[in-house]
Fold:
Amino acid sequence: MSQAKKNAAYAAMELVEDGMVLGLGSGSTAEIFIADLGKRVRQGMDVRGVPTSAATAACAKKHGVPLVEPDKVEKIHLTIDGADEVDPDFNLIKGGGACLLREKIIAHASDRMAVIVDGSKLKKQLGDFPLPIEVDPFGMALTAEKIFTALIESGCKYGQTTLRQNADKTGPLITDGGHYILDCACELIKNPVQTALALSQIPGVMEHGLFIDLATMIIVGEDDHAKVMELKLT
Structure:
């Protein structure tokens, strides 16, 4: 586990206060945060977590972080999650861990979203990382055709889609919600807002991995420190 990821996760802990309900993201950097949160809980910190995936729930239980169902909370004060790419406007690509639908539900319901990453995730423009799109299995080929068209017409350089396979390559990966993931080799997403809107209008697309206007803080871990960037509201 890289020191940069650890420094980002540890810096995020400074945002956590007693009594908070926290959205707990998915992925390796989020799991470092959850492990550290468990230490604080054992020392007496009073928090509850809303997990964004079955894997996150298992990690939280392992480290003793109390969990609560999302439908049983009045407020989610803060979500801490990772990202696959971050642009200068705090637009994100997420979904490398196949949890994008639930991650976006929790992020959208939160007062704030802080993203913890290492410096390699910062990009001038999104698209190097294949854009994950969660789709219903029914009519998937038809949906994929519409996705390709939407990506190209919204200004992406490419739009090829690949059905993500499970870990042992015996069939499609199935998300916690029972859907498939199409990974789209965009290479360059010129207008993330326009692309996100185009994808959201396609029947069969359950959710896409463009997170727009959700992150309010980016915490970038370096080898010896973490840099905190806050979104300037105009």
